[in-house]
Amino acid sequence: MDMAVMQKIVDSLSVKELLAVKEKIEERLVRNIDFKEFMEQIIEQRFAEGLVCPRCGGKHIKKFGFDGRGNQRYSCKNCGTFIPTTKTVFANSKIPAGKWLKYAECMNRKYSLRKSAEIAEVSLKTAFNMRHKILEAIQQSMGIDELSGVVEMDETFFAESFKGNHKKGNPNWKAPRRSGKSRKRGKQVEYRGISHEQVCVSVAMDRNGALVTAPACNGRLTIKVLDKLYEGKIEPNSTICADSHNAYKKFADGVPAELIQIERGQHKKGIYHINNINSMHSKIKTWIRPFNGVATKYLGHYMYWFNWCEKNRKVDRTEKGRRLILDSFSSTIIYTQADVRATKAF
Question: Whose C-alpha in 38, 89, 223, 248 is 20 to 30 A from the C-alpha of 316?
Fold first, then answer.
């Protein structure tokens, strides 16, 4: 098409129509990804420090033909044969690498599971498993950031959810929450204030960009939970900025760190404040809203996904899918569909 004609068409479209066209173009790009070269990039990243056996770490490796899908196979002198995907979330997967990459692109565009399944040409159940396999790999590769300097800490809460834990239309199913009552999506929890029906997500960040977003417990945050979650992750002699919650006092003593507590009704104390962390809470809630509720047992995966998105927010949108798969591939783990189903809340 002539560029002048194309420009006339673009100029004639409304903002809403332009956004719709943009969405269609991005979807078309996702459907037509060339992944062969990208797979070579994945292998290069995984074995960046030299070819080693993912099982035993042995370096006596030689090529050993190809498997039934055309993947290069290697032979380890110590423990047998392996392929580049051995001991990753992609191990033993019947899904071609190209579909994994397409699916990662869909995740970065926050498409629904149904739309992602359609584009990647997999079933809805497979799309769900793929999402959580990738997120588990991301969680393992990222871990918990180490915090230093001025560290802002606070917590935010999500209603406990058992979404997806029951069979549709089963009149005898009861929610495993204490009350035994089902909570309609969008409705508030039964108890007023902070209770066991709410999941506490601890959020901490320093001024250098390190960020922690992790489900911690049901109900109020305790010193025991803080100690377990941040053990060895806050540099001694840092300055912790938090609200007036009593748990932070003993926690700061144990680090040890200076504690600056912002009293209720105040916004800052000198140069210290928790404005950044409060802004991050709002950002988390806005980011997770399109998922229409997340089951509590998978909330940890979504918090690491949010954290990953924050760290890669400056990456070009078309490159984020590739980055997501590259980061997933860097984890040496075994995580099967059975593991996805057996996931338990923190």
Answer: 89
